[in-house]
Specification:
Deoxyuridine 5'-Triphosphate Nucleotidohydrolase, Chain A, 2 domains
Amino acid sequence: MKLICYTLDGKEIDVQPAGAERPWIDNTRKQFAKRCLPLVVANAHGWQIRFLDGCWLKWTGGSEAGHLKVKTDSGRFDQVHSHFGHGIVTFKVNCLFRTEPGVNLWVTGPVNSFKDGIQPLTGLLETDWMPYTFTMNWQVTRKRKWIRFEKGDAIAQVFPVPRGMVDTTEPELRRLASDDALNDTVLGWQQSRKEFVEAVRAGDPDAVSLGWQKHYFRGQFPDGSPGCDDHQTRVRPKPFKSV
């Protein structure tokens, strides 16, 4: 599948493959957060757009655009400004993305990254046809506090999603006991998990050396058999090529 990023004449953009690493993950005790495969795979799911300037922001709490103070390192305001009011920060994205027919682009903040006092807003764009650029917006959540964006900070993360998937999905609620095989597997895993945690707490050397059960990480059922043929432990988004 193709994902094209058209840059505007005279404008720059820094868009890079998202990585699995996060400083807060490295700082967890024994880096235990790296064991959470769903988290680290989500981190690298897509591409990140990075800020080309640096800036300080502070919101007084008012609804007007002028109630958000923006100070950029460059002194220019062609990349970040207050447009909507209500403490919403607008970053300009100087490009136009094009996806294949029937594919949207999910636009959100850098996944599993945090900045105190401000929250990224998420959008979904029909980039298979729209001839319009878009902006990335963040909502300040802490009034009267200076908030810092460094040059090179990720301001957005994007990835393609099929259009209409949610609309055509037929959700059902079922009791686990209605599926005997699945129920037995889940109950067996729960018991195994309970016994493993108790063994770790009791100081069992085998359990302690193992550290954690790795069934999902390895893409295995509790009995060690493979769960699927295309299990992913890493996502490897390719860099954009200049054409």
